[in-house]
Amino acid sequence: MGAGRVLLVPEGLDGERVDAAVARLLGLSRSRVADLIAEGSVLLDGDTVTKSDRVRTGAMLEVALSEPWAAQIEPVKAPGLTIVYDDDDIVVIDKPVGVAAHPSVGWSGPSVLGHRAAAGFPSSTAGVPERQGIVQRLDVGTSGLMVVAKSEIAYTMLKRAFRSRTVDKTYHALVQGHPDPFVGTIDAPIGRHPSAEYKMAVTASGRASITHYDTVQAFVGTTLLEVHLETGRTHQIRVHLAAIHHPCVGDPMYGADPVLAARLGLERQWLHAVRLGFTHPVRGEYVTFTASYPGDLQRALDQLRA
């Protein structure tokens, strides 16, 4: 049957479909997981499943990969990655665009964990081996602040903080048009796109997702928003802003105009994690970190302001 993996379903995936849960836990595509389920290579608490079966917290998933797969963490430093803060329990980084949080199927580029391995700093051993220490993720095409757990207690406490929504995750996004109202909340469930494998969408069967936004500055045809996340779904900001017809500039996957992006010199979505605040998992004090805009995003703003 090939390489086997045993996974316990975390609280954050309670009620999720089996195919979605396995895809997220192992970093596989949904179509790949569907094939594994069809061939009987996925067991839930010892029983075979259909892809629409639901998982529960603490259940045991057994996945026998029909061909060996293990994401290799290559010890390679990621160009442009900056260490913002570092102690015995956590490290806060400013992740550049083009760097993944961790290796996965289909991604062979630089990753935060690869940089960690090259730099020699430790991380928690909790979680899936290919994601050890990762308590949050940013898209490859999104830059900004991330925290990585170095100790076991930091991993546990930070995961709990993210689940209980006590972490301040603040982003700046340049969007097309002018949102009305200029301050608002988007409360709409997000799930997998019904026909596009790598996209997410607002869908009635999705998971509860809440995004708050406020206008920072309006330009001709675009607006700079400050965005706060209550939840942390895949592509949440991009999906929610597209759902109100104001996609991030430079994000053609979710309906942005490529001509506008080209005019501003952008080769990715204008989205940056500018602030991260949380209670230190060991010291107990509240800490806040900020990250300036990277060059490509700043140049686009300067052009709009000019």
Briefly say what this structure is:
The chain has 7 helices and 15 strands. It has helices at 18-26, 30-38, 112-119, 152-163, 236-243, 258-263, 295-305; strands at 4-8, 42-44, 47-48, 60-64, 82-86, 90-95, 143-149, 168-176, 183-187, 190-192, 200-202, 210-218, 222-229, 271-279, 286-290.
- Enumerate the spans where pLDDT stays under 50 for 5 or more consecutive residues: none
Give the strand tally: 15
Mean pLDDT: 88
Class inferred from helices and paired strands: alpha+beta
Helical residue percent band: 10-25%
Percentage of residues in DSSP E strands = 25-35%
Strand/helix succession: EHHEEEEEHEHEEEEEEHHEEH
Distance between the termini: 61 Å
Shape: globular
Number of helices: 7
Structure description:
- The chain contains seven helices and 15 strands.
- The protein is of the alpha+beta class.
- Strands 5, 6, 7, 8, 9, 12, 13, 14 and 15 form a nine-stranded mixed β-sheet that branches. The protein has a four-stranded antiparallel β-sheet with strand order 1-4-2-3.
- Helix 1 crosses helix 2.
- The model has no long low-confidence stretch (mean pLDDT 88).
Task: Detail the topology: elements first, then pairings.
Elements: E1 4-8, H1 18-26, H2 30-38, E2 42-44, E3 47-48, E4 60-64, E5 82-86, E6 90-95, H3 112-119, E7 143-149, H4 152-163, E8 168-176, E9 183-187, E10 190-192, E11 200-202, E12 210-218, E13 222-229, H5 236-243, H6 258-263, E14 271-279, E15 286-290, H7 295-305
Parallel strand pairs: 7-14
Antiparallel strand pairs: 1-4, 2-3, 2-4, 5-6, 6-7, 8-13, 8-14, 9-12, 10-11, 12-13, 14-15
Helix pairs in contact: 1-2
